[in-house]
Amino acid sequence: MSILLLRLSEILLGDSLFAIRLLPALAGAATVALTGAIARELGGRAWAIALACAASLCALFNLAVGNFFSMNAFEPLLWMGCVYLYVRIINGGSPTLWLWLGALLGLSLENKHSTVFFAAGIFVALLLTPERRYFAGKWIWLGGLIALAIALPNILWQARHHWPTYELLSNIAHSNKNVALSPAQFIAEQVVFMNPGTLPLWIAGLLWLFGSRAGRRYRAIGIIYLVTLAEFIVLHGKSYYLAPAYPMLFAAGGVAAERIFVARIKWLRPVLLGAILVTGALFAPLALPILPPAKLIAYMQAIRLQPPRTETSHTAALPQVFADQFGWEQMAGSVAHVYHHLRPEDEKRAAIFCQNYGEAGAIDFFGPKLGLPPAISGHQNYFLWGPRDWTGEVVLVLDTRDDDERELFASVEDLGQIVSSPWAMPFERRMHIFL
After folding, report:
1. 30 is in which domain, residue-wise?
2. Residue 77 lies in a domain
């Protein structure tokens, strides 16, 4: 789904930084508004809504994914759309809302496959709460069929291509690509991703959902969260995979703070709100490109906090969300310089092989203006797109070492190290161009 939105954005708005960031920013703003709407459905009034919206706005994950285009930018909005409809149903809304919930689940599955775990949380919550009575009606089943119908093209594509997503996840699970976390480490990283200042609010939300008479009516929200949390811990998912679930806890926490914890201490309300906003501003440079790189590193050292590493290859001084945004244009320029200095007969036949979709994507994005052909790669979808029309007789390969190339080609020549940014990921800066 997100790729379709990106294509529409490119057609209508072009590929400027503003255009690329517009839809994620709008999705982030809509997520904040939806968090407030969930708080209102839970019985919250002005302060509850304000606290919930402030927490959603200041969560570091939400700030980060709202700043650049990726499928992660739309996941919180889609998940919380499902929760909003679920709460409406709990509050006596029309059973036909299951149709809309199914549609959102289907779109979310089209956006990112991790929705499967969130959907499992909804299913378990249904089984464990009075809402299981809806299984006796038709609307929930029709909603499920709608979700399946929307996701079916993707499922069929996966089956036709021998389940590449499963293969990818299985390969990652049997490698050391991701940082392995204990349950305690996984939970601790939630605090950072969500902004430490919001911790009291979402913990209060969980307690309210299970420990108060008013909250227990909506305990399905807490069950969804705990089931999804358990799934990602058991399967060793990246710690940010759970991040889209937190706005619903912010909403519950806002209601809890309004009703229970500060009902008789009114002065504490603005203190809580101010604490969330102040910590949000304090930690925002860790998620948004506010500071120049050198100053950001100094700032992280001063506050003694930085975003958690999710991949073992991340050894950059900058957080990966920033380091991955540096060096691509310089890399493409380096390849273009080498490519156009090949012998004319070699230039016509030369393919450009990259190690990952980031490098290949940079060649494909910057390459046309530099006179480069489309890149090829064995990474993710580039593998399925194959060698295009290249014969493999002449190949420019981006790699840190030439061991593999010497096993495959009659001759290998090192044409030099690429030019990159000092702030890029270290393994990208070490790339050489081999002919």
Report:
1. 2-298
2. yes
